[in-house]
Structure formats: C-alpha cells, structure tokens
Design a protein that fits this description.
- This protein is α/β, with parallel strands linked by helices and 197 residues long.
- The chain has one domain (2-193): TIM Barrel.
- It has six helices and nine strands; from the N terminus they run βββαβαββαβαβαβα.
- Helix 5 links the parallel strand 8 (157-162) and strand 9.
- Helix 1 (53-61) runs parallel beside helix 2 (81-89).
- It is globular and about 45 Å long.
- The two termini are 24 Å apart.
- Its cofactor is [4Fe-4S] cluster; S-adenosyl-L-methionine; Mg(2+).
- Catalyzes the complex heterocyclic radical-mediated conversion of 6-carboxy-5,6,7,8-tetrahydropterin (CPH4) to 7-carboxy-7-deazaguanine (CDG), a step common to the biosynthetic pathways of all 7-deazapurine-containing compounds.
- Substrate binds at residues 11-13, 26, 71, 197.
- It holds the Pfam family Radical_SAM.
- S-adenosyl-L-methionine binds at residues 36-38, 73, 114-116.
C-alpha cells in the first residue's frame, strides 16, 4: 500500500523525456519542504488515501502509454521495489523524479535527480542518476548546479530549469549560462504552457 495524492495520464513536461505520453503516480509525503514547491498539498502523507500496488498498476494499464513516472512529494520515502517490478512486468518503463534525500529503492529505467538545498541528496542516488535537473530560483543556484554536476556520472544529462514564478527573471540568465556552459540544457515546464497536468 502506498499513499497516492493523484495519478494521471498526460505528457511529460520536463527534462530528457519531455513531450512523451506518461502515466504519473504522485505519492503523498515529503520531508524536504522546498519553499517554492508547487505541490505542497502532497507533503502530508496522512491526507492521501492508501492504494494497493495492484490498483496503481491497473490504473496505469487503462492508458496506451507505457512510461510510468513516480513522483511526489518525495517518492523515495517508500520502498518502491514492488511497485516498479509490477509496472515492469506489465511492460512499463519506470522513471522517478526525486530529490535523492532518501535511500534509493526500486528498479528504474531513468532516475531524474533534482537536488534541494533543504535536504541534500544521498551519494547512492547521485551515483545512479541519469538526469540532473536543477531548479534555478536565484543566481546562487548556478554554483549549486555545478557542485552536483561534478558529482554525477559523466553520462548524466544536465538540465537547468527556471522556477516557475521567477521565470521572467531567471530564464534570460539560464539562456546566457547555457550558451557559456554548453554541457547544460534547458528544461522548462512545458506542461504549464500547454495547460495539461
């Protein structure tokens, strides 16, 4: 059983898999507490109903896409071995979006690490990350991004993403930064522009 805030079929709006049809499973519960979080209602796990893994997988199977994205909250607060094995058995790719602040569990085709200053990521998650996505809230976040870029695998994809409410201010800085540091790419929350969940 896992606390499910919401699950929905949409397009992945961010990062490497942007634009792909995906079934999102948003788990309730987070102990990171980012001030700019856009899903603060996910933080308290007790406010979200517990759902059996078989029900979660059945919900995903009702849609034609076979990419499942587990997010939160902070999904690694829970052991995700059973959920990911069940999804894989039904032919799903398994992706996770995590701050990396809790121990790694689950069987993943893609790990998106988005480190937060409020609770640092664990070395095991940094080592396993396929994608590093750093939210740029202010100018000091570029140095924060480079700190983790130096720690992830050389094959890890690097993304800078403006915090949504500071986009007008931060996006020009990010564009200039990427032009000067082309190992980085831009991630924008495209789902918000096209008005899908």
């Amino acid at each position: 059983m896992l606390p499910i805030m919401e699950s929905f079929y949409t397009l992945q709006g961010e990062g490497f898999h942007q634009g792909r049809a995906a079934y999102f499973v948003r788990l309730g519960g987070c102990d990171v507490g980012c001030v700019w979080c856009d899903v603060k209602e996910s933080w308290d796990a007790s406010k979200h109903p517990q759902q059996a893994i078989s029900e979660i997988v059945q919900g995903a199977l009702e849609h034609p896409g076979r990419l499942a994205v587990i997010t939160g909250g902070e999904p690694l607060l829970y052991n995700l071995d059973e959920l990911t094995l069940a999804l894989r058995k039904e032919g799903f790719e398994t992706n996770i979006e995590t701050s990396g602040s809790s121990p790694l569990s689950g069987y993943w085709d893609w790990i998106c690490l988005s480190p937060k200053k409020f609770k640092f990521p664990l070395p095991e998650v940094i080592d396993a990350a396929h994608e590093l996505k750093v939210v740029i809230f202010n100018k000091t976040d570029f140095a924060w991004a480079e700190k983790y870029a130096a720690e992830v695998s050389p094959t890890c994809k690097l993304y800078l993403q403006p915090e949504w409410d500071k986009q007008a201010e931060m996006l020009p800085l990010i564009i200039d930064y990427i032009k000067a540091h082309p190992q980085w790419e831009l991630s924008i929350q495209s789902h918000k522009f096209i008005n899908v969940p």
